[in-house]
What we know:
The chain is 24% helix and 34% strand.
Amino acid sequence: MEENEVLVNVEGVSKKFCKDLKTSLWYGVKDLVSNVYGNKNERALRNKEFWAVKDVSFQLRRGECLGLIGHNGAGKSTLLKILNGLLMPDAGKVTIKGRVGALIELGAGFNPILTGRENIYNNGAVLGFTKKEINAKVEDIIDFAEIREFIDMPVQNYSSGMKVRLGFAVAAQMEPDVLIIDEVLAVGDLGFIMKCFKTIDNLLDNTAIIYVSHNMPTVSRLCDHVILMEKGKSVFQGDEVGKAIDLYYKSFGDNDTQVIYTNGSLELLSANLLNSTKSIDNIPQINWKEDLVLNFKFKLKEKIEVPLFRILIYDKEQRPLAIFDPNYNPDLITINEGYLDFNVLHEGLQLSKGVYSINVTAFKRNSNEPILRMNGVITFQILHKEDHFQPFLLESTFIQK
């Protein structure tokens, strides 16, 4: 087994789809005929066609982990299906050495009417293992998946979490040369996900891994190479994972504020980050451990007392990270001619590098009845020289005893 051996070589791969089923079927018939003589139109778009993947090239060596990132519809899953042999490219070439394990779609590769045990043998056979080799691994797979009491039940009766457990257990315990992982790990519970990450760390010595996720901290933790895709094209690729993640986050800057609920008595006029001295793509930036100063301006459309404000920080995966202490004291904010204008200060913010958003909810005081609920009223970016998987980077001092 060679170190630094190229296991995945992708050369100018493109794939196009048609937006209309009837037209797609007609094009398919025409392509069958033209392929006999060589398809001269493989790189040309016809009416109603679009590129799902366009001219993507990369190499992946043993011991490397490539992160594929981008918004929904960017072409990531299509590219994975081409790599796994589920789709043929319209142009370009894919060369993969060794055994390929893939977790592309929930339950993909499983026969739903067969039991979990029978599917283990089926998947192992597809990967090229003999029955004797699978026999040696089957108990480890069942133990890893933690579904022993259900292993002889048809897979069609499994929950989504059970399918993920079994799929990852088969793909990982078979120790493939190339492991392809799509977003399916997001379905598992936290304990199993952490076990999966530990297994991926162990596999990386001898395996090339392609990892697709919208969870940027895990991409930063696992991947040493990254490709950022937009509309089927690679807009950034290389080993600067942090730079690619920043570009991914910046693409959220034009998202509109979303009103989730309102009873009509309160209107948000503006929400801003006051102490930012720089911004990029309309996203204000502050350095790690600087103060966070937020300003909110509301208009009262009806006569009400000052609401109780709950202001929360979310990351870009919309996971709640923190809540500011609400204004329990009714005298902290006053109504001035039908308007509320106030600041919220948090000193020395120690969130890790990344992009975050502010959600705000206003409640009737002494009640859980909401008045207004809005997501993404402010988006801001924390700057730091290092990326971290953890959401907080806490200042510390090491003391020699």
